Amino acid sequence: MAVYDFPFGILEVAKILQLIQRFPGPNSSYFDCPFCGKRGKLNLNYIKNVWRCNYCGESGGMLELYAKVYDISTSDALYELKEILGDTRK
After folding, report:
1. What is the Cα–Cα distance from 10 to 69, expressed in whole angstroms?
2. Rounded distance, CA 40 to CA 20, Å?
3. DSSP per-residue string spanning the chain
4. pLDDT tens digit string along 34-90?
5. How far apart are CA 13 and CA 90, in angstroms?
6. Residue 23 forms beta bridges with which residues?
7. What backbone phi and psi angles, to 5 degrees, belong to 31?
8. 49, 31 in Cβ contact below 8 A?
């Protein structure tokens, strides 16, 4: 598995997507799922930058979360997130 050095984490992605946090934790938190709508079922892991809904089963990495919400590719998601966050690194 490849490891990438992103200039941001999944929590920043959640803030951009305005996900509603229900159960905060130090290494992961539960949010409302933007896909099935269930309250507090979407787990975001801050250490691994991954997510999974414990209700509908959707899951992936932080780029896939943004990409899936906006129905775009992960490369477009990376570009948009870097633009939003003001990161000029290529």
Report:
1. 14
2. 8
3. ------SS-HHHHHHHTTPPEEE--SSEEEE--TTT--TT-EEEETTTTEEEETTT--EEEHHHHHHHHHT--HHHHHHHHHHHHT----
4. 999 999 999 999 999 999 999 999 999 999 999 999 999 999 999 999 999 987 555
5. 18
6. 30
7. -125, 170
8. no
